[in-house]
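## Example pair
The file below holds two records. Each record gives the amino-acid sequence first, followed by its structure token line.
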Amino acid sequence: MTPVKMLLLVAILVHVGSSFPLERKPVGAGAGPAEGPDVGPAGREKVQFASWDDVNVLAHGLLQLGHGLKDHVDKTKGQMRDIAAKLKSFNGTVAELGKLTRRLGEEGDALRERAKQMARREERVLNASADLQALAQHVRAEGDGVRDRVGSLERKMDILLRGASATDDSNHSTSDVNTLQWMLETQSKRIDDLVERIRQQQDKLDKQNMRLQALQTEVKQRRLKSVVMRRAEEVSMDEPVEHALPPNELASDCHELFLRGEKQSGLYTIQPQNAKPFDVFCEITSERGWTVIQKREDGSLDFNKLWSDYKNGFGSLRGEFWLGLEKMVSISKQAPHALQIELSDWRGETQTLSYTFQLDGEENSYALHLQPTTPNGHLESALMTGAQGLPFSTADRDHDLKEDSNCALQLSGGWWFGSCGHSNLNGRYQSGPTLAQRHHRKQVVFWKTWHGRYYPLKTTTMKIAPVVKS
């Protein structure tokens, strides 16, 4: 019963009690009705109040009012207990937030200290790079001086040769010519040594520049990490997940989602065994659920990244992206997997390639093990790994099989390079089939066994799924 209803009931009872009529009756047996007031022995008027039934009605109303008030008090006590419990929970949450804030502050301080250390390392690398550049300039200047001296010796030798033909002292001339030839050979050897030293110094300078670029990238990532941690509970990867499941019900991959009855392709959160949850794009077909690990479609994303980017992944799951080598390992190590590569050209033609898929961890440079599953396997031969596997390479981690070259530096992007010339689906995207300049033609997205070495592909998709036993 609400307080308004109880007040209304009290008002009604008061009104009823106040409106009871008073009865006056004569005293004495057989007395008729009297017109005057009933007078008692002492001459006072005798008054009688409401009947017993009216009193019962009033008492019953008051009893109901008491029960209503009791119910209201009990309900109020329950609400107070609920409020107290919520306040206690809120106080606990505030305490947890305080602990989390302190922890984030400590981690922020540690990150700032790490950033300072990285800045100092960056400064040392810059100084070393400047020293190397100065040394390279000195070597170049020395080489120019040697070339000038060789030119002067060649001119002197021409003069002596012409003088030797006009003199009779042939033995003396021959001795001078031999001496000059020996000097020229010595100078040529010195020039070759200097050229080799220049090449070595240039290689060191290139490596230092790559290290500097990697350090700069790491510094930026460290500086952004604290902000990312604060937003970790609000933002997942780049976009909200379309199909979210409770944490205790996360599937280990897209194929498990397919086995659970999911039929719609899109963004999902998965959690492979012994790994943290992360978002993926699942392509659900009538036969299985594929986890997409790479997608190129319009050139909106630059794939010329370094090792750490290819390890952790980059891009948008709704557009172009690279899932990340660590995530690929965590998915594929759960069971034997298949790899499917889909290619398209600028004429609207498509090709699909199929392999068995195995990927080693970072300790083996994410070595790839593939085996074609199609009958002839001609198209698949552009990416053959052999029994030992093919390690992954980037500009700052050269693991390709060509000893005298850095394929990732020459061709752009990161890939499982063999001898640089068979495939690269992470190269520079070119909008249209027209061949670019000679230097850029090597760096396009290509698959040599389909349209050749310099044809830029329009779209590529790489996806993996557990092997389905027939």
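Second record, same layout:
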Amino acid sequence: MLPEEDLEDEGLRMLEVDNRVILPELTHVRFVATSQDVIHSFAMPALAIKCDAYPGKLNSVSVLINREGVFYGQCSEICGILHSSMPIVIESVSIEKFLA
């Protein structure tokens, strides 16, 4: 999570991250999730993704993003003391920009 004093004008408090996941649009992508300690749940409502991560197991979900944009999500399980501090940001860009 990005500290509040480092937010830019368009940044969303408690949702912005240091490093976004950058993905190309119109490309099938598969996420593989696992955990080392407790159950986590990777949730990105705008992309219709919710994938649980269990210790010792692999779980996968695939997505096709059909437009450019920034999508916000977070862990949606009560997984520990800093549960509310686990945002996820996916930025979808054109294939040309992704390859550059």
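Notes on the second record: The beta strands are 21-24, 28-33, 40-44, 49-53, 59-64, 69-75, 87-93. The chain is about 5% helix and 40% strand.
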